[in-house]
């Protein structure tokens, strides 16, 4: 602990952005014991701290205790300055009586993971695929030039020193990059990591996204997880790979007795995800800009599924006695905590249902069309009983109201504006913040 000069005490907000305070070494031990009392309405603000006065609680609320979870303390070398070393610790959001507050997205994941363990004897393993754009801060010129070649090693090798430095920086924080590569579009890159258990997967994803942005910012570049910075640049996703495991360490999605090796439990879990896919869209595609990505080539448009078929929304990946589900619905702009929480809620609903029907593979004729706008997705989300039970009415109301006040109301004033003005509005809203 004494090796760090500053410690960031952090809670991920509803957008997946870091909120908190920086504590100098002199006061670190004290604050790690007591936590800090801070205004918690900041956790539900928009991506640029847009504030809503429509939620009375935001106006009258007292502070909450941000209590450090010491198991999450990691070095954050992307924040170091000269010889000054920095660490980060994630905090729980606690009421005055010491009980968790339901507005913490990390807390929601922990609660649902507990239900998965207690009710089904299962744990979740997750691996995200991080796609993002990098461009010069002043000119927005894509890093690597205008090359649009998938897995283009020439583009990667031309910037290899920077990505070696990025990998080694993440490594010092215990964030182990499994692979990196150029993606299909100019200035687009991808990082991949090994699967992690439960809350560790969400924490890792949160740190990776913020580390990438800070790393490139200090080198004169803007790294953005905005889904579509410009229609001419392309689209970024956050593919969500996950599997279920028993207490004995067995993959519960595997059934050796079946020809396809996919267990009935896995099929029921997938059926739950498909049934609630339209509601999940609000969590997986949480910005106006995300809907420039959906309903395009190589991006989901309906709640379809498949085995080893890239056009399904969910895809079973089967190899070497291993089975997991990849969902291509999440946008790069998504909060990883909400992605995991939404899948836990939907998947467990599939396991709990007395009867749940899994539609035929790639049944495009009968599949439901995914929402085409954030407005439509929010309407489905706030009326989905499974999501209401999992997230609580208070969180759902704050989430939906915040999206309207922070993004949609202003956006809807532009509905007759030229396309150039609309995308400029979206870049101002999301390019730097996400």
From TrEMBL:
Residues 105-434 form the GS catalytic domain. One of its GO terms (biological process) is glutamine biosynthetic process. It holds the Pfam family Gln-synt_C. GO terms for molecular function: glutamine synthetase activity. Transmembrane segments: none annotated. It comes from the Eukaryota. InterPro entries: Gln_synt_N_sf, Gln_synth/guanido_kin_cat_dom, Gln_synth_cat_dom. One of its GO terms (cellular component) is membrane. May act as a component of the cytoskeleton or as a chaperone for the reorganization of intermediate filament proteins during terminal differentiation in the lens. Does not seem to have enzymatic activity. Belongs to the glutamine synthetase family. Dodecamer. Interacts with BFSP2 and VIM. This is Lengsin.
